[in-house]
Specification:
The protein is about 45% helix and about 15% strand. With about 180 residues, the chain is an alpha/beta fold. The protein has a five-stranded mixed β-sheet with strand order 2-4-5-6-7. A two-stranded parallel sheet has the order 1-3. Helix 2 crosses helix 3 and helix 3 packs across helix 5. The longest helix is centred in the middle third of the chain and has 21 residues. It starts with a strand and ends with a strand.
Length: about 180
């Protein structure tokens, strides 16, 4: 089986299907008297992992193109009144999965470009509607290795364009929600 690959310019083809999903969710919320809802979305780097680059010259250019392609979906979701939790496990997970031989400085540089792509996608999206989830994965692995990147996550959290960053520091010990003042 071949992996999916982007071979030409990416662009949004509209938000029709997303609007249907939002309408269905809001109908169900109204039916049960639920006042606040959310619709999860993927972080541009998560998309990058599954939709390989066959078009852009660099990783950063590809992430920028992904961010531009998904930003309309982010805006549509939040404009509907829903919150937007973004799944960004790779801000920590890649430290011990993909970059275990890299220094913390090299990882921070790469993670900073990932946050830049995320913030590009979040342009014109209200920070108060966004939650970013960062973790080291939900599989069996040594937590010593995973927790070595806690400091890296804490360093990155203030630069993420959201009101809150939810950092699962260790699956067995719970999570922490950090909200900037």
């Amino acid at each position: 089986m071949r992996a999916a690959m982007c071979k030409r310019e990416m662009k949004s083809i509209g938000q029709g299907e997303l609007r249907k999903d939002i309408a269905n969710l809001k109908y169900a919320m109204a039916e049960y008297g639920v006042m606040r809802g959310f619709m999860n979305a993927a972080f541009p780097v998560v998309i990058w992992l599954f939709l390989r680059n066959g078009h852009c010259r660099t990783r950063d250019a590809y992430l920028a193109a992904l961010a531009d392609a998904i930003k309309e979906a982010y805006k549509t979701t939040t404009a509907s009144g829903l919150n937007l939790p973004l799944e960004c496990p790779d801000l920590a997970l890649s430290r011990h999965m993909l970059l275990s031989d890299s220094s913390d400085i090299e990882f921070l540089k790469l993670a900073a470009s990932d946050v830049e792509a995320l913030n590009r996608a979040l342009q014109n999206v209200p920070q108060g509607k966004v939650r970013v989830h960062i973790c080291s994965g939900n599989y069996e692995h040594p937590q010593v290795v995973a927790n070595a990147s806690i400091g890296v996550r804490i360093l990155l959290a203030p630069s993420v364009g959201s009101q809150a960053v939810i950092a699962a520091l260790a699956p067995l010990r719970g999570s922490v929600q950090w909200t900037p003042k």
